[in-house]
Amino acid sequence: MSVHRTTSPSEASMMDTQQLRETYMITDLIAPAELRYRVTDLDRAIVGFACPDNNQLELQADASMRASYFCERRELGILNIGESGIVTVDGKEYQLSNRECLYIGRGAEEVIFKEDQGQKPQFYLVSYPAHTSYPTTKASHADANRVDLGSGKTANERTIFQYIHEGGIKSCQLVMGYTELAEGSVWNTMPAHTHDRRSEVYLYFDVPEGNMITHLMGEPEETRHLLVHDRQAVLSPPWSIHSGCGTSNYCFVWAMGGENQTFDDMDGIDVLDLM
Ligand SMILES: O=C[C@H](O)[C@@H](O)CC(=O)C(=O)O
Ligand SMILES: [Zn+2]
Predict the structure, then answer these.
(1) N or C: which end of the chain has fewer CB atoms below 10 A?
(2) Protein residue whose Cα sits closest to atom 5 of ligand 1
(3) Cβ neighbours around 137 below 10 Å, total
(4) 193 is in an annotated binding site
(5) Could you tell me the fold of the domain covering 9-25+142-258?
């Protein structure tokens, strides 16, 4: 049975650079002392950043969500890619250092972001609808499951750190973690893949100054590219590959939502079959 598309691959293949960027990139989420997010129709992902300064930032439901509070029907994954900060969930404080993760389950009513002793956190947020409530759980860097992939020879040596996944923090549909490329390696997710059961969001970060990523998207036989800078996000529909090559090594947060959470059930694509 073929899959009914809401965001159509044939449309993507007709788009010019500006249209592709407007449809598949989110570039304006980070602002000092602000909490910003974007509501998308891609498995209803919400993608955002909370960057508290001297102020407190409270997560609130956008009017379009028709919810009395943000997590009324949703779960939320947070990865801090800045300095140390504090997230308070219904009165309970969680301190998150750089690259620590917090999962907030459906039903948490009050979520507040704060700085920690003058430091500047950057809380990256990804949320999906949730059918039940799993416990709010923090994972430190050491709690993440490490998967080493690729090699220096093919310039794709990298480590995947899985936080919210089948063997880690439990969730309804969110799967989340980040990937770090080794020095001298520039390719992520090559050989590329799709997974028709899930869509994905990439957030490139710690891209050294003056460098950028050529992100590849589109159906495997109809690829397009997006030039992506530090701390910009890319939306990847289920039919699209999501892979990139940088002018240096870098990191990216990946987050997925959809029907299942089996990380390894992707459909791999032979490098020579890409067009
Ligand atoms: O479906 C899995 C996601 O695309 C990423 O986790 C892949 C990735 O981080 C990598 O290969 O570097
Ligand atoms: Zn993927």
Answers:
(1) N
(2) 254
(3) 18
(4) yes
(5) Jelly Rolls (2.60.120)
